[in-house]
Every structure is written in structure tokens, then in C-alpha cells.
């Protein structure tokens, strides 16, 4: 067990104050290498008081605050050559505070041979016809044309260059249509816009007439009457647009309570653009509608325990002292263990089976058995997964004859433990018992 490594992780999780603590961008969610819901910048120890959080350093990589765990393997890539022998590969990433503590931490890349299927890839098709121009007349129009890459997606490397081209359209003069001029006769409006629907002083215009055709006359005798009616007519300018109303902010609401009981959280305050609301083309309220601030509880969140991988099974030994059971039809027993790691700050203990398992076994390590050939085992992956000399191998399966070990009478058959020296004789076809192949074009080691 990696007891020392587990203790190291626990110390980190315990948020021991460090003299070289630096600020990081803290996020409330970490999902398979992606940080989401940014909280703000805090010290790494404070951010990682919650093991579900993630943080981003100056290098831009998102890291988890939780215990180390492998991501799923990626999908196998396309073959790295278009035609002939090459390799495809898949990768995985270790997430968590102590990334080097993932089981088999160096095993991040797997490679297997493949044959490029694009030997007959033709490349680009002919260009399609140009599209219609984006404008019907005048300047500034563009048109496009496209082409497609023949063959399946893995053959895309056979097509270099763009799949789309754009060019300016030939220009043409747009027709000019006639229109009415404005009415004459009225004076200009007294204002340029209507300030509000309920305003009593709206912009207006006037026209005049004089009582002079003829003018009223008469002297010592009764004079003529003045002309009936008004000398001035007034008309509201109802066709004018409403005046723009710029938006204004309401007061900020108080900051919300800290939403977490451990780690760091985010308090929010907002305001509304309704004092007044922007209207009739007026400017919207400047600035942000919401503001936030970090709150710190200075309490570490519980860190739940996680099982380590099972250890290898111990040597198969007799339960009766030092009696030797190797190569004998006498049952022994063996154990394996696992540890509940990373639990801290009153987190949950590991659930499931116990920390240790015991099973009955027969010790057949290096014992001679007659056997029979049973086909080939699967090909191994390419080893090493990078560099210039990568190979894979497979062996014929020589199945030992364990018929003399009568374990069928037990409810749980004992395990046959160890690597026997099985003798299956000559192979059925006279060929080799093991095959080795070169993996061509393996990726360079970084």
C-alpha cells in the first residue's frame, strides 16, 4: 500500500498553512477536467477546503480539489497514417490534488496497430457553383462556393486547404424610386419629440389669418362686425416620435447570505434597470446588473474516504503452520487488502466490502503439469507506447491439466495460484508458441 502517499494527500487536504500560498481562480464545479461556475480568486488552500471544487492556475489547466482518480480512457484515435501500417492511440488523465498518486500513474497512453484505410482517397471534389450574392444591388455583397472531401472522416488529411471560398460580388446600380415630399404650409413643431403620453404641453404648430378681406369699417355710425372665429389655429404634432428615456438603476439589494457552511462560497447582490426603465431608444443602464463577493467559512468540508485498489494476493500458505503446500493437492489460504484513503474532516468512511479478503488456494507456482493447447491469447498493446521501437506480442494458451485437484466438493472452489511449468508439447501446427509484431509509426515520446 502507498501509505506514505496517502499521508501526503491527507496533509494537503487538511489545508495546512503554507508560506508560499498563491492565488488561484476557484470554481464551484469540476467535471472531467473542466472547471465551471467561477467563484473568484482565493488561495489554493482555501479553494480546496471543498473537495468538489476545482481551480485554475496561471498555466490555464483546470485541477480538481478531490482525491486522485483516473478519467475514462478516450476513444481510439484515427490511424495516424492514411495508407499502410500505423498506430491509433487513446489517453486518460489523472485528476485530483496528488495527481502522481493515481494507481499506475505513468500509464497515460495506450497504442495499438492499425492500417490506414485511405489508400484510395481522392481528395477534394470539384467546387460547387457560386451562391447567390448576399445583396441584390449596390456594393458590399459577397458570394460563396464549397467543396467536399471524398471518403470517410479518417481520410480528411488527404484534403488540404479550405472547404469554402468567398469573394466580392460584381456591383450593379440599384434603381431609385420616387416619393412624396412633405406637406407645406404648417410651421415647424415647437419641439423635436413627445416627452410623455400624459404631458399637457405637447409640441404643436400654428397657422394664422387676418380679418382683412375686407377689413371691418364704419365711423359716428355703427361699425362693422369683427370677423367671426379664431385668428390663430393650433394643432398638436402627434406624428412626432416619443423622446428617448435613458434607463436608471434601482438601489443595490443587500448581499445574500453565504450559501455554504464549509469552504468558500459566493454572495450575490443585484439591481434592476427600472428607475426609470429605458424606453423609446434611450440608453440602457450602464454597468453590471449583478455583483458578487467571496465569503469564507474557514471550515474544511468533509472529505469522504475512497478505496485503494486491492493489493496482490499474498503467497498461498498452509493454514497449519509452516507446512509446504506447493505442488501438492493440499489447500492453503491467501489474503489481500485494500485501504480506505483520503478520509478527513469527518467525511464518510468507505462503503462496501471489508478491508481484507481471504480465499482458499492451491499453490501451483513453478509446478510441472501436462497441458493442452487452447488457441491464442489476445494481442498485447504496443510497448513502449511511444518512441521508435514499439512492439506487441501474443502467446499460445497452454492450459495445464488440473484434474487431479478435486475442489468441486467445496461451495467456493479454491483458486489455483501461481505460474505453473505447463508442458503442452509441440504446437498443433508446428508454429511458434509466441508471436511478436512491430508497431510502425508509434508517436514520439514527449
Automatic annotation (TrEMBL):
Give the signal peptide as a residue range, or say none if absent: 1-21
Instruction: Kindly state which keywords UniProt assigns to this record, in alphabetical order.
Output: Disulfide bond, Repeat, Secreted, Signal
User: Where does it live in the cell?
Assistant: Secreted
Mind telling me which PROSITE patterns this protein's record contains?
A: TSP1
Pfam families from the UniProt entry: TSP1_CFP_C (PF22195), TSP_1 (PF00090), TSR (PF18487)
Biased-composition ranges, Polar residues, are 211-223
Domain of life (superkingdom): Eukaryota
**Region entry Disordered, spans:** 199-232
Protein name in the entry: Complement factor properdin
Natural source organism = Tetraodon nigroviridis (Spotted green pufferfish)
Q: What is the lineage of its organism?
A: Eukaryota, Metazoa, Chordata, Craniata, Vertebrata
Amino acid at each position: 500500500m502507498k501509505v506514505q502517499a496517502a499521508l501526503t494527500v491527507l496533509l494537503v487536504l487538511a489545508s495546512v498553512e503554507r508560506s508560499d500560498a498563491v492565488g488561484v481562480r476557484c470554481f464551484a464545479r469540476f467535471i472531467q477536467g473542466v472547471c465551471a461556475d467561477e467563484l473568484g480568486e482565493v488561495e489554493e488552500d482555501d479553494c480546496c477546503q471543498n473537495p468538489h471544487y476545482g481551480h485554475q492556475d496561471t498555466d490555464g489547466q483546470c485541477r480538481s480539489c478531490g482525491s486522485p482518480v483516473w478519467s475514462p480512457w478516450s476513444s481510439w484515435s484515427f490511424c495516424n497514417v492514411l495508407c499502410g501500417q500505423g498506430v491509433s492511440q487513446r489517453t486518460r488523465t489523472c485528476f485530483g490534488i496528488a495527481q502522481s498518486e493515481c494507481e499506475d500513474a505513468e500509464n497515460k497512453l495506450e497504442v495499438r496497430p492499425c492500417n490506414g484505410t485511405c489508400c484510395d482517397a481522392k481528395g477534394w471534389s470539384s467546387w460547387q457553383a457560386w451562391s447567390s450574392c448576399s445583396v441584390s444591388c449596390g456594393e458590399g455583397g459577397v458570394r460563396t462556393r464549397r467543396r467536399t472531401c471524398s471518403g470517410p472522416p479518417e481520410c480528411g488529411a488527404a484534403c488540404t486547404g479550405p472547404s469554402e471560398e468567398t469573394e466580392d460580388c460584381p456591383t450593379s446600380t440599384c434603381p431609385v424610386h420616387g416619393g412624396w415630399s412633405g406637406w407645406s404650409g404648417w410651421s415647424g413643431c415647437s419641439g423635436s419629440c413627445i416627452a410623455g403620453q400624459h404631458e399637457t404641453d405637447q409640441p404643436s404648430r400654428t397657422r394664422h389669418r387676418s380679418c382683412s378681406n375686407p377689413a371691418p369699417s364704419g365711423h359716428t355710425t355703427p361699425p362693422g362686425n369683427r370677423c367671426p372665429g379664431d385668428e390663430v389655429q393650433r394643432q398638436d404634432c402627434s406624428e412626432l416620435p416619443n423622446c428617448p428615456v435613458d434607463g436608471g438603476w434601482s438601489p443595490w439589494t443587500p448581499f445574500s447570505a453565504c450559501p455554504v457552511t464549509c469552504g468558500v462560497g459566493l454572495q450575490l447582490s443585484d439591481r434592476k434597470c427600472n428607475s426609470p426603465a429605458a424606453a423609446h431608444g434611450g440608453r440602457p443602464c450602464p454597468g453590471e446588473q449583478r455583483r458578487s463577493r467571496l465569503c469564507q467559512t474557514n471550515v474544511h468540508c468533509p472529505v469522504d474516504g475512497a478505496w485503494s485498489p486491492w493489493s496482490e494476493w499474498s503467497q498461498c500458505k498452509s493454514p497449519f503452520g509452516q507446512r509446504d503446500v506447493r505442488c501438492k493437492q493440499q489447500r492453503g489460504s491467501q489474503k489481500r487488502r485494500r485501504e480506505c484513503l483520503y478520509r478527513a474532516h469527518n467525511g464518510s468512511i468507505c462503503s462496501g466490502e471489508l478491508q481484507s479478503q481471504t480465499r482458499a488456494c492451491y499453490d501451483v507456482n513453478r509446478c510441472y503439469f501436462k497441458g493442452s493447447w487452447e488457441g491464442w491469447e489476445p494481442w498485447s498493446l504496443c510497448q513502449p507506447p511511444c518512441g521508435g521501437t514499439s512492439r506487441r506480442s501474443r502467446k499460445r494458451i497452454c492450459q495445464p491439466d488440473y484434474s487431479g485437484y478435486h475442489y468441486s466438493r467445496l461451495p467456493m472452489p479454491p483458486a489455483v495460484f501461481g505460474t505453473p511449468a505447463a508442458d503442452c508439447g509441440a504446437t498443433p501446427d508446428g508454429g511458434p508458441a509466441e508471436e511478436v509484431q512491430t508497431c510502425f509509426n508509434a508517436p514520439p515520446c514527449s
